[in-house]
């Protein structure tokens, strides 16, 4: 569950992912020239807002990050490629598009730099940012994007690239733990004492960030899905840590008294309830030929207006004998 949206937007009082600030602050002079880094993190669109974090030295953290990546088996070429992609994301974020009805790229330097770092043809990247291909019958049609659509395409590309890079780093960690199959996939040397296939009982590394509910100035469908997933994880946590534990205490005759904990069952019902949950109404509106944002909003208001402006968490009281 990766918060990809943070790559392209974050609250003014928060930072983007640490690696971006580490790169800008800790890159060597040679790296700065090769990656064409700017002097300040705030010079990049994606890093505007808070640039420092209490107790964090970004330059020193950058050196520690590189050291850890080397310990995972990354060689110099792999590290160079990783840093090129991180830097390219910052330059792509500076793409600007004209205010006319159809998008026209207005940022020559960031485009040329991004293409150089990603080692791709400028024509290919610019076309991907300013147009889309649609299949109509047996033919493919190319249509120009509006400036706002081009911005969405730019941000979508950066989120996808960062997600792939994140998965790559997680894969490298699992290779260091003995996953030979992953080593083959990533083109890395097979780990020592590993068979051709990963032993299901072998250790592996995963990432779980639980209950990171956030409300941005502009919330996308992705953020909605992230928040819903976090609510489901919190519900599972409640069942395992509170409800199941109390049942165990009851079976063992251990008196624990009354335990109160927040119950988010109403929030989950608001999302996945049928026939009028948020996700059900969204799916219904998307399946209609004349579906629109205003229609969806009206349906949501009609279905949930009686619940007030928001759904409050209710406190659940449980004891070992309930």
Give the overall silhouette. Answer: globular
Q: Give the rounded overall mean pLDDT.
A: 83
Order of helices and strands: HHHHHHEEHHHEHHHE
pLDDT < 50 stretches:
311-316, 318-322
Question: Over the alpha carbons, how many angstroms does the gyration radius reach?
Answer: 24 Å
The share of residues in helices is 40-55%
Characterize the largest beta sheet: strand count, sense, and whether it forms a barrel: 2 strands, antiparallel
Q: Look at the helices and sheets and give the structural class.
A: mainly alpha
Sheet with most strands: strand arrangement: 1-2
Proportion in β-strands: 5-15%
Write a structural description.
The protein has 322 residues and is mainly α. It is 52% helix and 7% strand. It has helices at residues 18-26, 29-35, 58-71, 76-92, 108-118, 122-130, 147-176, 180-186, 221-252, 265-272, 278-287, 293-304, and strands at residues 131-136, 139-144, 258-263, 314-319. The strands form two sheets. The chain has a two-stranded antiparallel ribbon. The protein has a two-stranded antiparallel sheet with strand order 3-4. A hairpin with a 2-residue loop joins strand 1 (131-136) and strand 2. Helix 4 (76-92) runs antiparallel to helix 7 and helix 9 (221-252) packs across helix 10. Mean pLDDT is 83; it is low at 311-316 and 318-322.
Key words describing this protein structure:
single chain, mainly alpha, two-stranded antiparallel ribbon, 4 strands, disordered C terminus
């Amino acid at each position: 569950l990766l918060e990809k949206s943070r790559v392209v937007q974050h609250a003014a009082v928060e930072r983007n992912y640490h690696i971006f600030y580490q790169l800008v602050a800790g890159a060597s002079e040679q790296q700065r020239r090769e990656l064409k880094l700017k002097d300040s993190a705030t010079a990049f669109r994606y890093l505007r807002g808070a640039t420092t974090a209490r107790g964090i030295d970004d330059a020193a953290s950058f050196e520690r990050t590189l050291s850890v990546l080397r310990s995972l088996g990354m060689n110099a070429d792999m590290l160079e490629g990783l840093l090129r992609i991180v830097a390219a994301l910052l330059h792509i974020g500076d793409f600007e598009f004209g205010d006319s009805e159809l998008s026209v790229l207005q940022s020559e330097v960031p485009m040329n730099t991004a293409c150089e770092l990603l080692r791709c043809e400028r024509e290919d990247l610019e076309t991907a940012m300013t147009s889309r291909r649609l299949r109509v019958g047996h033919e493919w049609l190319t249509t120009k994007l509006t400036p706002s659509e081009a911005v969405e395409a730019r941000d979508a590309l950066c989120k996808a690239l960062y997600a792939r890079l994140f998965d790559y780093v997680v894969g490298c960690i699992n290779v260091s733990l003995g996953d030979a199959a992953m080593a083959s996939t990533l083109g890395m040397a097979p780990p020592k004492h590993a068979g051709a296939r990963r032993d299901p009982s072998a250790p592996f590394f995963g990432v779980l960030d639980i209950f990171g509910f956030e409300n941005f100035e502009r919330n996308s469908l992705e953020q909605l899905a992230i928040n819903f997933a976090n609510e489901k994880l919190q519900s599972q946590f409640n069942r395992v840590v509170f409800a199941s534990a109390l049942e165990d205490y009851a079976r063992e005759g251990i008196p624990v008294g009354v335990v109160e904990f927040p119950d988010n069952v109403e929030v989950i019902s608001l999302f996945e309830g049928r026939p009028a949950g948020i996700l059900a109404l969204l799916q219904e509106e998307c399946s209609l030929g004349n579906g629109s944002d205003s229609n969806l909003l009206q349906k949501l208001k009609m279905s949930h207006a009686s619940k007030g402006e928001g759904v409050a968490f209710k406190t659940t009281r449980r004891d070992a004998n309930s």
